[in-house]
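G., the chain you wanted modeled:
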Amino acid sequence: MFCAKEHFWEKFAELTDLSELISDKRFATFALRHQNRETLLPILSNRLRKKTNGEWLALFRGSVPSGPINSIKQALEDEQIKARGMIVDVEHPTYGTIKQVTSPIATEGANRAVSPGPGLGEHTNELLAELLSLDSAEIQRLRNQGSVG
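Predicted structure as tokens:
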């Protein structure tokens, strides 16, 4: 925990019952905390082991910027991901109904339509033709030499 703003560091120290770290000259600034991290990390680790991630996050909420380091499964089950409708069911031509992550950008009037991702090489010809202005003979030549799939 290396809070980039001093007021967050102080609040963190208070909430973890480590207020004595606030006046400890070794940890007085971000640079000093970084410089003395080999001393500080064991202190913080020992304290943070005393509660679960959920307990700490609930305690820090609204006071200290924080968040868990999630596995993919945990991230997809997060309450905010669910509340924002970030996971949707999409019909895939090969695999049937699959779950897919939507764009986190949700503005009024934004196109929220989702479709499955393309198959490997599905749009290669179109991209080579449109973006690189290659003709079909050049695309075929690249395919023949194994440059594109």
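The chain has three domains: 6-60, 70-117, 118-149.

Shout if anything looks off.
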